[in-house]
Amino acid sequence: MPIQDAITAYQQAIANFEQKNQEAADLRNTRLPELTSRLNANRLSMDSAQSAMRNAISDADYDMAKQTFQQAEAAYADCAQLITNVEAKIKSWREFGLKEHQTRITELGRTMWQLKQAEVMAALPAELPTELRIGLQKLMTINSMQGGVGDGYYGSRVNKIYGQVEPEELTATRNALLAEMGL
Q: CA 71 to CA 135: how far, in whole Å?
């Protein structure tokens, strides 16, 4: 996979995550309170229609109150079902969608940085000067002979010889890499 495709896939995954996360937030912060308010209003309409049915003295008044009650009851049931649906959608996002999207972003980010690392490694000289190569090999070998992992821990020893990179340089390098990749 070309690095630009990996960057694009990573950016799309982040955009998709942000969109889905915003949808869930809108459901939780806007739609659910709106439906709850409608449910309460429908409950009041049902109570009012029931009261009108109890106080009706003519057939026409009773039938009209009964019809109003049935409409309010149907609206109440519909609204209750919508609330159940919205709550299920929010729960599904929290339990499955959120983690799935975060995992996807992590995987795509890892792939993107592995490709970038390969690109940077390809730009390095094909061979190191013999003295430097042998010195690094010795450091790795000595470390592994002490019970450590050969190529995993030689960085601190190299830093002892050549000095550590300044944090400002690391920040500048990080920002340059991100800018180079359009992130």
A: 86
